[in-house]
Amino acid sequence: MGEKRFFSTSFKTSTLLGINISRVYSTNIPVAARKYPNADAEKGLILIENRGKSGVYRWTNKVNGKSYVGSSINLVKRFTNYYSFNYISKSKMSISKAMIKYGYSNFTLEILEFCDPSNAILREQHYIDIFKPEYNILKMAGSSLGYTHTEETLAKFKARSLTPEQKANSLVHLKIHNSSPEQREKSIKRILEYNNSKGQRVEVLDTISNETTLYTTIR
C-alpha cells in the first residue's frame, strides 16, 4: 500500500498539491441576501420578494462582467422603473443603455443587503467601494461628486448663467407679460396649443347625461 497522507482542515495552514487552500477559499466579497441569475425569467419573483423593502442592489452583465450598484428606499418601485422600456429608453444611465443592448436575460440581480432607508446611501457607498462597478459613472453614492463634465458641457453651464442685471430684466419681462388679462389669456392659449400638439385626445362619456366631452392630456 502507498504512503498515507493526512491534510489539515485549517485553511490558514494547510496546502494541497502545493496550493495554499486559504488562498482558494478566502474572499472579501460579501454574500448577497438574494440573487436572481436571470433578471428576465425571475421578474415576477423579484417584484414579489422585495415588496416593501429598502436596500442595496447590484446588476451584473453576464456577457462582459460589468456591474452597477444602486440603492433605494423602495426596491420594488425602483425595479419597476428598470423593467419599464419607456423609462430606461429615456434614461442616460449606462446601466439602462446596457439593458436595452443586452436584454434582461443577460443580467443577474443581487440584493446585496436589506437595510434601513436612512442607511441606504451609506451602504451603497460601501459596496461601490468594494465592487468598483463599471456602469456607475458617479463614484459617490447619492451625489454628483466624481462626475467629470466635458469642457463643452461646462461651457454651456457658464453661458446659461445670468448676471444680476439679466435676472432683473427677466423678472420685469415676466411681470409685464402676466400683468394684464389679455397677456394671461395669450399664455393660456399657448399652453393649450402646445398640449394639442403634444398631448393625446381623450374622450369621456358621462353615463348619466350621456354627454361626451373631448379634451387633450397634459404632457
Structural key phrases:
9 helices; 8 strands; 219 residues; disordered N terminus; four-stranded antiparallel sheet; alpha+beta; extended; 41% helix; GIY-YIG endonuclease
Element string (H = helix, E = strand): EEHEHEEHHHEHHHHEE
Count all strands and give the number. 8
Supply the CATH class of the domain at 35-131.
Answer: Alpha Beta
Query: What's the shape?
Result: extended
CATH architecture annotation of the domain at 35-131: 3-Layer(aba) Sandwich
The residue ranges in which pLDDT falls below 50 over 5 or more consecutive positions are 3-27
Structure description:
Among the domains are: 35-131, GIY-YIG endonuclease (3-Layer(aba) Sandwich), CATH 3.40.1440.10; 164-216, no CATH class. It is 41% helix and 17% strand. It starts with 14 loop residues before the first strand and ends with a strand. The model is unreliable at 3-27 (pLDDT under 50). It has a four-stranded antiparallel sheet. It has a two-stranded antiparallel ribbon with strand order 1-2. Strands 7-8 form a two-stranded antiparallel ribbon. It has 219 residues and is α+β, with helices and mostly antiparallel strands. 16% of the residues are buried. The chain contains nine helices and eight strands.
